[in-house]
Write a structure and sequence with these properties.
Blueprint: E1 5-7, E2 14-17, E3 22-25, E4 27-29, H1 51-55, H2 85-117, H3 136-167, H4 172-202, H5 215-236, H6 239-246, H7 248-283, H8 293-297, H9 303-311, H10 325-358, H11 363-383, H12 389-401
Helix pairs in contact: 2-4, 2-10, 3-5, 3-7, 5-7, 6-7, 10-11
Length: 402
């Protein structure tokens, strides 16, 4: 039944709203006989909905089929089996960096051991920068810092290392593994420096002041040379020192201005020069002493095997003696342990890389990188630290001749 509303008579057409105290029009339903007649046309199945449309009609209250969505992660996943390429790329970068750091650490260890024990004990790098000393008013502290680092690492540290080996119970193995402990830091520094320079060049915003380096060390050396220069100036006397004594306030102002200006110049250029210095002596190394053991065997044997054989040539604690079987056994065990220690440390350094490789989503890439890591470890064991009887005999003959 259709209900149609109509106003009452004028006296009954309004009702009072109790909330607002206003008159409102009152509506009443019409009688059924007064409702308008609307004819209903019969449903024509030929012109109406087709069967597919009828099948798709849902009863009221029936929910539509929800898409298959992970409740924990509401984002739709097109294909769960599809590998996450972005994660694989990030993981591959991590593996490659770990691999480069590990190999670079081993190489730096061998090179710096050769620098300190088999290389010449004469610093030569700073001599290539003697031309800047002509502008000493500007480059004084820069040149002095480079010279100090070069002489300390090549001459002083070399003499200290040889003193340690020849006059204490700490032999070549101790020095070698002490260098190994520092080499990982050097390797990471070199890689970080290259990454920073590459990022600055890519962004076309090269800023030499933001290059990584031991800036605290540079600052300490800088002010150390400032104080040393002032002491040296007063000790020599002369017109300048006399003027400074006679006019201390003006002299102090001039010194502060000069020190502040040269500090920016010196600390700006040192990181780049320091990187070149460390990279050269860590990858190439110093000139070889012609009287060293390495100089006499390097043409016949590989670089790494020759150095590592020299490292393990002498005893750890005891010389082997016929009447001391217990000491001999203890010494042989220690020699075997130290002989394989580089292999163990390399494996330990590559454990994070192996874990990352196992987490790769693409099976082919996963297998490839696991194979590469195993080849690297096997190659180092075979060509760097594997025992070579012929090499050992050659070294012992050279030692006996000496």
């Amino acid at each position: 039944m259709t209900t149609v509303w109509n106003n009452k008579s004028k006296s009954e057409a309004f009702s009072m709203n109790t909330n607002t105290n206003k008159l409102l029009p009152a509506l009443v339903p019409l009688a059924p006989s007064q409702a308008p007649k609307v004819p209903l046309e019969p449903f024509d199945s030929d012109e109406g909905l087709n069967e597919d449309e009828i099948d798709n009609i849902k009863d009221f209250g029936t929910p539509a089929e929800a898409p298959d969505v992970d409740i924990a992660n509401p984002e739709d996943k097109a294909d769960e089996s599809e590998p996450d390429i972005d994660k694989d790329i990030f993981a591959i970068q991590s593996i490659l960096q770990s691999l480069v750091v590990a190999l670079l650490t081993v190489h730096i260890t061998f090179v710096w051991y050769r620098n300190l024990t088999q290389g010449t004990s004469e610093a030569a790098f700073y001599k290539n920068l003697e031309f800047v000393d002509k502008f000493s008013f500007i480059t004084e502290y820069f040149y002095n810092i480079v010279k100090f680092i070069d002489i300390f690492l090549i001459e002083k540290l070399s003499s200290y290392s040889k003193l340690l080996i020849n006059n204490t119970f700490l032999k070549d193995r101790t020095l070698f593994f002490a260098i190994f402990a520092v080499s990982a830091t050097i390797a990471n520094y070199l890689i970080d420096f290259v990454k920073v320079v590459y990022a600055q060049i890519s962004n076309k915003k090269f800023d030499i002041r933001k290059l990584p380096g031991p800036k605290t060390l540079f600052t300490v050396l800088y002010f150390g040379f400032v104080v040393y220069g002032l002491i040296d100036l007063f000790s020599k006397g002369g017109a300048v020192s006399q003027f400074m004594v006679a006019n201390p306030i003006y002299a102090l102002i001039v010194i502060i201005i000069r020190v502040a200006m040269l500090y920016v110049f010196t600390l700006g250029g040192l990181p780049f020069v320091f990187f070149i210095y460390i990279a050269y002596y860590s990858i190439v190394g110093t000139t070889i002493d012609p009287n060293s053991l390495y100089a006499q065997i390097k043409d016949s044997f590989g670089f790494y095997k020759s150095i590592y054989s020299i490292v393990n040539l002498k005893h750890v604690f005891f010389e082997l003696q016929e009447d001391s079987p217990v000491k001999n056994m203890f010494e042989r065990v220690l020699r075997w342990i130290f002989g394989k220690l580089v292999y163990v440390l390399l494996l330990a350094g590559l454990i994070p890389a192996f874990k990352t490789a196992l987490e790769l989503h693409t099976p082919t890439i996963k297998a490839a990188f696991i194979g590469i890591l195993l080849l690297v470890v096997g190659g180092v064991a075979k060509y760097a630290i594997d025992d070579d009887a012929e090499l050992s005999i050659a070294l012992k003959k050279l030692v006996l001749k000496a």
